[in-house]
């Protein structure tokens, strides 16, 4: 059998040398389940059998099965063994794509956003399904915390100086290695460390535009990006976006014919809030289109490493041969937002973007940069990401089950292949800003749809996050939300 052959090769090609033996074995079995070598419902080889074939100990195989079981890939049957779980992706009814492009619009919703963000700090005990926070309590982050405290004691005055304007070399080297997974061959000299992804995006916008200019965005669009547009006095041109394959290239082309556009700002891989990933051929086609109109792309890739698939999808930057794409990302979603460490690879706009980063914050704090560099170098990042991917995928499947159970029929929802955000389109009569106030009174925070547009086209939509709250609490909150929606009908 094929698995026997692969077992003797020992490390299958998707595994890194930094993985423990049981992790390698689990990854190899998962790979074979993905490839349907083991079908849903099929019994896996016994522990003893695998131990002999793969020349590893019984406890290594048991640990590997434990990992697969925790991720929902296999299930134990008493006195029988381990069986492959059904892996069929759920197929919910997806939200509809807006049918028209609204003309370039001044963004003016800081008051709404401020209200939503301030509320976050006011309500102890609330279940926050509205904030896009990762699971920062994960045990796989503990080694990072230890590195931070060790470095605080051992690294001396280096922590107290400004480091290189581009950020610490150790971290830029590690980021260059991670970027290979996204298909990007970047040298450390092409990477600048920023205070989160937000600083990369806003510095890039300021480098590329003057107040009054128009910027293309996908729609719905992350409200932080809209705020960067508002703060610079720009107009947003919101292009209809499909919840599975992303921005409509046809609508974009028509819009570019009609309006003068200075830049395009997109999150094409594991989008916030829709969760889509543009297929590679559409990513390439987008780049061709932007080249034709000579428009730069700011590519926000902050969720890219949280793809449930390995290898993760390619960044558009990986197709860029002329420095047109400014790639922005951070560790805010993959590790922890409080670290405030991001990066930008600005291509041909490097000097201008650096100028804007310089006047924004000069440099970035040294301690978290060095700690993250060590964490990546020791294999901790890899380990953490793999764990989070399978946890978040399980979270997605549970959320979809709860939506089906607790929400009224007519609810539409996305089915992302990475990250931890869902976008729901509720029956048309529901006003989700009002729903948000009612939900807060019942101890549940949500992000209402119109935060994600400069218009009011998402009045009956919400975004929910499922990463950083225990599942029992989320289920109770989903039941409350479902009741509130039903009451409004
Ligand atoms: C798409 C997107 N870009 C940027 C950011 C901001 O990232 P950071 O916290 O690294 O500044 C977020 C945070 O929610 C986001 O979702």
Structure summarized in a few sentences:
The chain has 16 helices and 17 strands.
List keywords for this structure.
single chain; 41% helix; disordered N terminus
For the biggest sheet, the summary is: 9 strands, mixed
**Count of beta strands:** 17
Separate helix tally:
16
Radius of gyration: 23 Å
Share in β-strands: 5-15%
Share of helix, binned:
40-55%
Shape: globular
Bound molecules: pyridoxal-5'-phosphate
Low-confidence stretches: 1-6, 8-17
Quote the average pLDDT.
92
CA-CA gap between termini: 56 Å
Task: Give the helix/strand layout.
Elements: H1 2-9, H2 21-34, H3 47-54, H4 58-70, E1 74-77, E2 81-84, E3 105-106, H5 110-120, E4 127-128, H6 142-154, H7 169-179, E5 192-194, H8 196-208, E6 214-219, H9 223-231, E7 235-242, E8 246-247, H10 249-258, E9 263-266, H11 280-292, E10 297-300, E11 325-330, E12 342-345, H12 350-361, H13 366-377, H14 380-406, E13 412-413, E14 421-425, H15 432-441, E15 444-445, E16 447-448, E17 461-465, H16 471-488
Helix pairs in contact: 2-4, 3-4, 6-13, 7-13, 8-9, 8-12, 14-16
The protein binds pyridoxal-5'-phosphate (PLP).
Walk me through this protein's architecture.
- The protein has 489 residues and is α/β, with parallel strands linked by helices.
- The chain is 41% helix and 13% strand.
- The chain has helices at 2-9, 21-34, 47-54, 58-70, 110-120, 142-154, 169-179, 196-208, 223-231, 249-258, 280-292, 350-361, 366-377, 380-406, 432-441, 471-488; strands spanning 74-77, 81-84, 105-106, 127-128, 192-194, 214-219, 235-242, 246-247, 263-266, 297-300, 325-330, 342-345, 412-413, 421-425, 444-445, 447-448, 461-465.
- The strands form 4 sheets. Strands 3, 5, 6, 7, 8, 9, 10, 11 and 12 form a 9-stranded mixed β-sheet that branches. The chain has a 4-stranded antiparallel β-sheet with strand order 13-14-17-16, with helices on one face. Strands 1-2 form a two-stranded antiparallel ribbon.
- Helix 7 crosses helix 13.
- The chain is globular and about 70 Å long.
- The relative contact order is 0.15.
- The structure holds pyridoxal-5'-phosphate (PLP).
- Pyridoxal-5'-phosphate (PLP) binds at residues 132, 196-198, 222, 224, 267, 272, 300, 302, 330, 332, 337, 342.
């Amino acid at each position: 059998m094929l698995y026997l052959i692969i077992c003797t090769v020992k490390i299958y090609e998707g595994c890194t040398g930094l993985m423990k033996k049981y992790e390698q074995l689990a990854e190899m079995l998962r790979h074979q389940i993905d490839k349907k070598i083991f079908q849903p419902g099929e019994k896996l080889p016994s522990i003893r059998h695998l131990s002999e074939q793969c020349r590893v100990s019984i406890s290594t195989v048991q640990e590997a099965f434990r990992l697969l079981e925790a991720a929902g890939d296999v299930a134990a049957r008493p006195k029988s063994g381990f069986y492959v779980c059904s892996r069929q992706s759920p197929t919910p009814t997806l939200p509809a794509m807006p049918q028209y492009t609204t003309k370039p619009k001044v963004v003016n919703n800081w008051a709404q956003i401020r209200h939503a963000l301030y509320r976050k700090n006011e309500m102890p005990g609330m279940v926050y399904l509205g904030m896009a926070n990762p699971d920062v309590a994960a045990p796989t982050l503990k080694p990072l915390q230890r590195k931070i405290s060790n470095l605080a004691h051992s690294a001396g005055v280096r922590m107290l100086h400004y480091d290189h304007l581009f950020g610490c070399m150790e971290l830029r080297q590690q980021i260059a290695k991670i970027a290979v997974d996204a298909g990007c061959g970047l040298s450390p000299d092409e990477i600048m460390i920023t205070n989160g992804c937000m600083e990369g995006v806003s510095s890039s916008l300021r480098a590329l535009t003057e107040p009054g200019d128009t910027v293309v965005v996908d729609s719905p669009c992350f409200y932080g990006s809209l705020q960067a547009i508002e703060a610079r006095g720009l107009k947003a041109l919101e292009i209809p976006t499909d919840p599975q394959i992303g921005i409509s290239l046809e609508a974009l082309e028509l819009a570019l014919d009609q309006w003068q556009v200075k830049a395009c700002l997109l999150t094409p891989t594991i989008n916030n809030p829709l969760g889509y990933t543009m297929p590679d051929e559409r990513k390439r086609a987008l780049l061709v289109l932007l080249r034709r109109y000579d428009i730069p792309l700011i590519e926000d890739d902050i969720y890219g490493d949280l793809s449930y698939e390995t290898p993760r999808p390619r960044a558009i930057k990986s197709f860029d041969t002329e420095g047109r794409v400014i790639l922005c990302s951070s560790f805010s979603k993959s590790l922890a937002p409080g670290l405030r460490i991001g990066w930008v690879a600005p291509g041909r706009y490097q000097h201008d973007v650096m100028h804007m980063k310089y006047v924004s914050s000069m440099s970035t704090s040294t301690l978290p940069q060095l700690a993250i560099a060590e964490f990546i170098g020791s294999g901790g990042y890899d380990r953490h990401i793999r764990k989070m991917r399978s946890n978040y995928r399980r979270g997605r499947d549970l959320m979809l089950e709860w939506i089906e159970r607790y929400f009224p029929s007519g609810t539409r929802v996305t089915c992302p292949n990475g990250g931890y955000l869902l976008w729901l389109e509720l029956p048309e009569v529901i006003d989700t800003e009002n729903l948000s106030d009612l939900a807060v009174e019942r101890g549940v925070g949500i992000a209402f749809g119109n935060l994600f547009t400069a218009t009011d086209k998402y009045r009956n939509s919400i975004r929910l996050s499922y990463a950083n709250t225990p599942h029992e609490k989320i289920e109770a909150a989903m039941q409350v939300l479902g009741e509130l929606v039903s009451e409004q009908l």
